[in-house]
Amino acid sequence: MTGTNHAVDRTRVLTGDTPTGRLHLGHYVGSIENRLRLQEEHECYFLLANLHAFTTRANKPDEIRRDTIEIVKDWLACGIDPERSTIVLQSEVPAIAELTWFFAMLLPFNRVMRNPTLKTEIEAKGLGDQYPFGFPMYAVGQCADILVFRPAFVPVGVDQVAHIEMCREVARRFNQTYCAVDPHTEDEDHPARGGVFPVPAALVGRVGRLIGTDGRQKMSKSLDNAIFLSDTPKQVKKKIGAMYPGQSRQPDEPGDPDINPVFTYAEIFIEDTACVADLKDRYRRGDNIGDGHVKAAVIEAVNDLLEPIRARRADYEKPGGDDLIIDIIRDGTARANTLAEETLWRAKEAMRLGFWRRSLGAAT
Ligand code: TRP
After folding, report:
1. Beta bridge pairs of residue 201
2. DSSP line for 89-128
3. Is 202 helix (H, G, I), strand (E, B) or coil?
4. Given this model, what pLDDT does residue 206 score?
5. Mutate which of 48, 146, 163, 209 to test ligand 1's pocket (most atoms within 8 Å of Cβ)?
6. Helix 273-285, helix 261-269: angle, nearest 10
7. Which of 22, 99, 201, 262 has the most crowded CB, counting CB atoms within 10 A?
8. Residue 315 and residue 319: Cα distance in Å, rounded?
9. Is 151:175 a contact under the CB 8 Å cutoff?
10. Predicted pLDDT of residue 9
C-alpha cells in the first residue's frame, strides 16, 4: 500500500453491507455507484457487517460465512479497489463492539425501538415480537460501525437514513456529555470544538429505492424480484422479459410509460437519454412499439452494465479465489484497526476510561 493512498487529509467515508446474499441492481444504483465515485477522492472504508447477519440468522453460520466472502467478490467485481479502499471485517474490529456498549448508554431504549428502519424491517420480515435482543441492538452497533472511522460521509440507500440519523444523534450526545461540546454547536463544528466524533452526513445514491421486477415492491432478495449482479445474460433476459408493463396494450395503442416499471429501468439504465425520450414518446403515441421492444432495449443496457462486472467476478471464482478474498479482508481489517483503536482510545479518554493504552496483536 502506498502512503499517498491513505493520506490523512482525504475526507473519510464509511459504509457497509450486511452479508445476506448476492448484491442486486438496487444495491448498485443505490450505493455501489456512489462508492466507486467516492473511492477516487476519499479514504473509503467498506464494512462487512457480518455480525449483523446473526440478528436474523444466528442458526446459519455457514451461510453467513459464505455470504461474507461472496459480497466481497461482488464489491471487487463492481470495481471497488482494495489498493485504494479498505475492506473491513466487522467481527475482527473489537473497538466496534466496545463503542456499541458506550453508545447503548447514551440512547434511550424507546428511541431505539422507534427507529423507523427497524420497525419496517420487523414488519417486512414478519418478525412480530419474535426477534432476539440483538436485533434492535444492531442499530446501536451500526452507530459504532460508522463512528469508529470518524467519517464525514456515509453513502447509503434511503432505507438506511434513519440509522444515520440515530448515529448523528449519538455523536452529538457523546461530544456534549464527555467532551464539553456546547449543545448549540453546529454539526460540522463538533470536531473543532473538541468532540471526539464528527456528525457524519448520509449520502443517498442516484436511485434511493429501486423497484423490483414485480413492479410493486422495492428490489430485494427476499421478495424474489431482484436482478443480481451475478445473473447471466439469459437470466437478465428472462427476468425483464417476464415483467408486467403495468397495462395491457397493442403496439399501435397509446400507452402510459409512467405506470410501466420497464420504463423506470429504461430511465435508470439506458445512458442515451435521447433514446429513452424517443421510446417514451413512441409509447405514448402507440407508434408501432411493442412492450418487447422496450424490454429488449432495457435488457441490452442492463447486460452492458453487468458484463464487465461478470468478467471481473470470474477471476475470483477460480480455485484459490476465496483465499485471495481472505487475504484482502485481513489486510484491510488490520489497517482499519489502527484507526479504530485510535478512535476507541480517544473515546475512552473522554469517558475517563483511559487508564492505559493497549495494542492489538497482529492477525495470524
Ligand atoms: N444496515 C446496513 C444494511 O442493511 C448495513 C450496515 C451495517 C451499514 N453497518 C453499516 C451501512 C454502517 C452503513 C454504515 O444495508
Report:
1. 153
2. EGGG-HHHHHHHHHHHTTS-HHHHHT-HHHHHHHHHTT-T
3. strand
4. 85
5. 163
6. 160
7. 99
8. 9
9. no
10. 55
All three cell numbers of 243, joined, read 415483467
* Amino acid, res. 6: H
Going from the Cα of 280 to the center of ligand 1, the distance in angstroms, rounded, reads: 36
* pLDDT in the model for residue 5: 43
Tell me the residue type at 51: L
* 61 CA to centre of ligand 1 in angstroms: 19
Position 4 pLDDT exceeds 60: no
Count CA atoms closer than 13 A to 171's CA, side-chain side: 33
- The residues, ordered by sequence, that sit 6+ positions from 239 with a Cβ below 8 Å of its Cβ are 213, 227, 231
Q: Report which protein residue has its CA nearest ligand 1's atom 8.
A: 16
Residue-averaged pLDDT of the chain: 94
Please tell me the residue having the least CA distance from ligand 1 atom 5: 17
Q: Which residues of 300-339 are buried (b: 16+ CB within 10 A; e: fewer)?
A: bbbbebbeebeeebeebeeeeeeeebeebbbbbbebbbeb
Q: Contact, 50 vs 281, CB < 8 A?
A: no
Q: Give the Cα separation of 86 and 333 in Å (integer).
A: 7
pLDDT in tens, 185-237: 999 999 999 999 999 999 988 898 899 999 999 998 888 999 999 999 999 99
Residue 195 grid coordinates = 468532540
pLDDT in tens, 115-143: 999 999 898 888 899 999 999 999 999 99
